[in-house]
Amino acid sequence: MNFSKIEFLLSVHSLGQLPAPSLPEIAFAGRSNVGKSSLINSMIGRKKMVKVSGRPGKTQGLNYFQVGDDFFLVDLPGYGFARVSRSMQDSWQALISTYLEERETLQCVVVIIDIRHEPKAMDTQLIQWLREQSVSVLPVYTKIDKLSGSKRQKNARLLDAGHTIRATERVLFSAKTGQGREQLVSMLASFLPSL
């Protein structure tokens, strides 16, 4: 995967705004403030390509980034604590669920989970729902630099059990240190057979 040519394409707020389904897509999902933007920036080797915010609910559309002529990265709005109106949350939900269910060019959803916390019902529900829709899922446990090695392994095992994930199916990642980046890129490449 070559991220030397990457550009922001558009922010989608309705299904009619989705680009023509011409390239494979990898979507990134996670609870608000889980480190989604930091993960994408670290993965592509850019500090500020994806805007990072300390305020939950900053991403308010499906943000499309085109990587060369090869594929799209799609940054989805965070779920959970976003301080936005109920109607805004409902419209996001409708847009995101329809996108995830019907987008034929969607190859994989990266579900980002903070390793410091116990399994959360919303993450479990999303992973199970994606599996039911036959959408490939790649769980990534972020912020591993915040825990010691033994605590990190213990928490990873708890998350694996809570979300019914095998250790070989997920990535341990730190946007701060870059640990896990090569494994993440390699696993994502396996969902893009043309690369």
Describe this structure in words.
The protein is an alpha/beta fold and 195 residues long. The protein has helices at residues 36-44, 86-102, 121-132, 149-163, 181-189; strands at residues 6-12, 25-30, 62-67, 71-75, 106-114, 137-142, 171-172. It has a seven-stranded mixed beta sheet with strand order 1-3-4-2-5-6-7, with helices on both faces. Helix content is 32%, strand content 21%. It is globular, with a radius of gyration of 16 Å. It contains five helices and seven strands, in the order ββαββαβαβαβα. The model has no long low-confidence stretch (mean pLDDT 89). Strand 6 (137-142), helix 4 (149-163) and strand 7 (171-172) form a beta-alpha-beta unit. The chain has one domain (6-189): P-loop containing nucleotide triphosphate hydrolases (Rossmann fold), CATH 3.40.50.300. The longest helix has 17 residues, at 86-102.
Task: Tell me briefly what this model is.
Helices cover 32% and strands 21% of the residues. The chain has 195 residues and is of the alpha/beta class. It has a single domain (6-189), classed as Rossmann fold, CATH 3.40.50.300.
Radius of gyration: 16 Å
Could you give a short account of the major beta sheet?
Answer: 7 strands, mixed
Order of helices and strands: EEHEEHEHEHEH
CATH structural fold name:
Rossmann fold
Shape: globular
